[in-house]
């Protein structure tokens, strides 16, 4: 045991502090940890036998690597888990071993391996719909067995449920049902995790950061479920390899593509459609995976307006579209080396135009036009090279490029035609540009000296080029009696260049059959202008498992954030923009404590109870701007620096049998803010939802029919309303109206606000239903009809409120709720 302590101290001195990492251990493996103790103490009974490493990839029958699959040796009761690229490494003693590999949704495979030297061995699993045969204790990614707190892994099956809003499956809306997460405004793809803001979530798509994560002002997320393979969601115990945001990490990995068979699908939905193709370029060596999703509202609105405008003098047009394009190319050079190129392109476009004319006589005529164009989106590229330097050392090198852009163009033209008299024309145009370019690299190393010791370390560099607001305005006035044109042109631009270096190291060890620890550190260096910020973020997670079906965990994490999203709306608008920390401000920081208990009372049930406390500092809020286009010039002079704190308890329960699964979660939470320049003391956040309760169920009624139901209840959002009038002296020439009212003594009456977010809107609840109807053709193709119902019992939830004054000068609040039941359907053809 003394040598265990020395080994623990050695890792502590090597990496500076403890970190957290996504992994866990099979309970059967726990019972074999006496073998580990003997190895560490140097008294292993088999020390005379040599030890060799079995390594390789776990894949499905199409060659797709499987993330978080469990590889377990039944002979020595030692196990490991595949990484984000499906690679595993397991060091065992010389001789024969029974290797069991399992993954949720696939048949468990047991193979006999004779180890006489280091061996590369790929494991291929076959799909299996009979999930009742899978035992949770064999899943090292189970909350019962992994070391860190607050991690959720989702496969494509979890995302592509039988229910999908407006016929499009959605990654973010799936995460919204998670405990500890608030969804913000109804229908929007908001994500407010443990009291954090929407910009405090790190979205990674194949290792590249995604800035615009929604379409249609938040109605859809930017992730095409057809190409998504796995999603790892962290909300409390962050591994040291992640950094840059305060509240959560959403690591999305896309599929490589089928190495042996070409196939695809076509989906036609209510508002959008999708194409998906994958297959080999060189069989067994090179593959492609292509997905395209596009809305077709513009294909409907354009001809509709053309028909409507026929024979009309005043004409209107409105067109909106969005698209996603994902392409991934993968090439296997050898069993030790492979490379992939991942490309994502997403764009939204909203164009509107109004042409009008009027005449006061047969000759006099006025006409004009008003036009608006909004376009925003992302371009992400990642070039990955995986290389296995040795059976125990795996490395991944990534070159990344991200381009995020938003454009707004508006013009207003008016012409007055008066024959024989003066002709006047005016033109006002307004342009707005915002963009971010990130260029960098990632170097990540995965070292497993033995099955009970897993080390990760790496270094990242990112060059940030921010152009938060390039503004142009043109005002032109022309008079036919005056040949000179009166034109005023205004232009302004802002740009910031920043360099970010990140170093991390994390180490997970099994100390004995009951204790495991994951520790590490993340170091960030952020340089902008003449200012350099350096932050040290330690991470520590520990697990104690006193019994086979019971474990306790605790974690401590610190996070830093150097970029901020400036917005004055809870929708995802093109007028929002990202800016870096400046010399006037400090980077945002947070620390979080989390602890929980996890129990599996039977093979059908899994229960967990987690509590957390999180404190954030240097969070930002606009001080006075209220428009949709907050100015980027000197933006750091118009924000307030404040604090945030949130705490709560989360209870989750899972029940699973062969054809039916049920998940329930309950969250009791508090979320508060403190801005001294805004309010004296702490006040509740807008999305401080005290109680949240959700149930989701999936039922395979037959081989042809599957059903899904999700019921959500939460305390209503908060908002600020006035509590009384106060009388102010009447100012000469003061304009009446707005929020000012006249009292009987001639003084002005104004609203008085005692505290921000001082009322709670009515409780929110709804039921969503979905059904899939499957049919297989004689040629083996599959057809799927989907019917989904949003808000199935048509409960009208509060969307916004209006403050009014009655005849007796009393404050009245009117609740507005208008989103009813929304049916949707889709048809999918797989070939």
From TrEMBL:
Residues 1-19 form the signal peptide. Its main location: membrane. Keywords: Cell outer membrane, Membrane, Receptor, Signal, TonB box, Transmembrane, Transmembrane beta strand, Transport. The keyword Signal applies. Residues 347-774 form the TonB-dependent receptor-like beta-barrel domain. Residues 168-245 form the TonB-dependent receptor plug domain. It is a multi-pass membrane protein. Gene3D superfamilies: Carboxypeptidase-like, regulatory domain, TonB-dependent receptor, beta-barrel domain, TonB-dependent receptor, plug domain. It is found in: Cell outer membrane. Transmembrane segments: none annotated. Belongs to the TonB-dependent receptor family. This is TonB-dependent receptor.
């Amino acid at each position: 045991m003394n040598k265990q302590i020395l080994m623990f101290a050695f890792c502590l001195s090597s990496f500076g502090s403890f970190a957290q990492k996504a992994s866990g251990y099979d309970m059967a493996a726990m019972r074999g940890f006496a073998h580990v103790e003997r190895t560490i103490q140097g008294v292993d009974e088999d020390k005379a036998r040599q030890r060799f490493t079995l390594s390789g990839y776990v894949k499905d029958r199409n060659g797709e690597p499987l993330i978080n699959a469990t590889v377990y040796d039944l002979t020595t009761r030692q196990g490991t888990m595949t990484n984000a690229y499906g690679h595993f490494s397991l060091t065992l003693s010389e001789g024969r071993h029974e290797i069991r590999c399992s993954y949720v949704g696939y048949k468990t495979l047991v193979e006999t391996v004779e180890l006489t030297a280091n061996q590369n061995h790929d494991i291929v699993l076959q799909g299996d719909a009979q999930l009742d045969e899978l035992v949770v204790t064999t899943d090292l990614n189970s909350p019962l067995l992994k070391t860190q707190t607050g991690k959720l892994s989702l496969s494509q099956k979890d995302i592509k449920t039988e229910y999908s809003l407006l016929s499009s499956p959605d990654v973010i809306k799936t995460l919204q049902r998670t405990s500890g997460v608030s969804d913000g405004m109804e229908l929007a793809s908001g994500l407010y995790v443990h009291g954090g803001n929407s910009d405090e979530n790190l979205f990674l798509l194949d290792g590249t950061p995604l800035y615009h994560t929604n379409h249609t002002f938040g109605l859809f997320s930017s992730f095409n479920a057809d190409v998504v393979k796995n999603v790892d969601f962290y909300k409390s115990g962050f591994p040291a390899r992640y950094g840059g945001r305060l509240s959560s990490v959403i690591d999305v990995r896309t599929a490589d593509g089928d190495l042996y068979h070409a196939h695809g699908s076509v989906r036609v939905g209510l508002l959008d459609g999708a194409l998906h193709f994958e297959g080999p370029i060189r069989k067994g060596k090179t593959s492609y995976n292509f997905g395209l999703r596009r809305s077709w509202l513009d294909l409907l609105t354009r001809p509709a307006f053309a028909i409507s405008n026929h024979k009309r003098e005043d004409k209107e047009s409105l067109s909106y579209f969005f698209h996603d394009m994902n392409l991934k190319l993968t090439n296997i050079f050898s069993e030790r080396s492979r490379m992939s190129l991942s490309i994502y392109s997403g764009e939204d476009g909203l164009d509107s135009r109004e042409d009008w004319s009027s005449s006061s006589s047969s000759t006099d005529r006025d006409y004009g036009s008003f036009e608006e164009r909004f376009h925003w989106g992302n371009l992400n590229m990642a070039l990955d090279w995986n290389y296995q330097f040795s059976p125990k050392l795996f490395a991944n090198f990534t070159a990344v490029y991200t381009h995020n852009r938003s454009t707004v163009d508006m013009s207003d033209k008016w012409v007055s035609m008066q024959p024989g008299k003066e002709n006047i024309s005016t033109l006002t145009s307004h342009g707005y540009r915002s963009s971010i370019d990130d260029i960098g690299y990632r170097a990540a190393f995965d070292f497993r000296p033995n099955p009970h010791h897993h080390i990760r370390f790496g270094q990242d560099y990112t060059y940030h080029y921010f152009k938060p607001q390039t503004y142009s305005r043109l005002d032109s006035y022309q008079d036919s009696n005056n040949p000179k044109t009166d034109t005023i042109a205004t232009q302004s631009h802002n740009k910031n260049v920043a360099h970010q270096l990140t170093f991390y190291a994390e180490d997970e060890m099994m100390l004995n059959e009951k204790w495991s620890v994951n520790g590490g550190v993340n170091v960030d260096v952020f340089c902008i202008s003449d200012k350099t910020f350096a932050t040290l973020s330690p991470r520590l997670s520990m697990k104690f498992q006193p019994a086979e079906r019971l474990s306790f965990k605790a974690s401590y994490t610190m996070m830093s954030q150097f970029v901020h999203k400036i917005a004055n709306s809870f929708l995802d608008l093109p007028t929002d923009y990202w800016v870096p920390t400046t010399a006037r401000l400090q980077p945002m920081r947070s620390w979080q404590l989390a602890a929980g208990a996890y129990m599996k009372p039977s093979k059908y049930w899994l229960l967990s109870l987690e509590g957390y406390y999180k404190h954030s500092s240097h969070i930002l809020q606009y001080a006075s701007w209220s428009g949709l286009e907050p100015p980027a010039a000197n933006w750091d002079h118009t924000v307030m620096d404040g604090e945030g704190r949130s705490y709560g308890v989360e209870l989750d329960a899972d029940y699973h049998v062969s054809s039916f699964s049920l998940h329930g979660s309950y969250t009791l939470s508090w979320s508060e803010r403190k801005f001294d320049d805004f309010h004296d003391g702490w006040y509740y956040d807008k999305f401080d939802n005290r109680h949240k309760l959700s149930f989701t169920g999936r039922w395979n009624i037959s081989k042809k029919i599957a059903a899904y139901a999700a019921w959500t209840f939460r305390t209503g959002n908060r908002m600020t309303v006035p509590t009384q009038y106060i009388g102010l002296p009447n100012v000469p020439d003061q304009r009446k109206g707005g929020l000012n009212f006249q009292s009987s003594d001639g003084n002005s009456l104004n609203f008085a606000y005692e505290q921000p977010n001082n009322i709670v809107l009515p409780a929110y609840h709804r039921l969503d239903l979905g059904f899939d109807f499957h049919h297989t053709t004689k040629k083996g193709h599959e057809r799927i009809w989907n019917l989904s119902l949003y808000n199935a019992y048509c409960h009208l939830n509060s969307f916004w409120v209006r403050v009014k004054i009655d005849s007796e000068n009393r404050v009245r609040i009117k609740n507005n709720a208008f989103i009813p039941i929304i049916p949707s359907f889709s048809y999918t053809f797989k070939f």
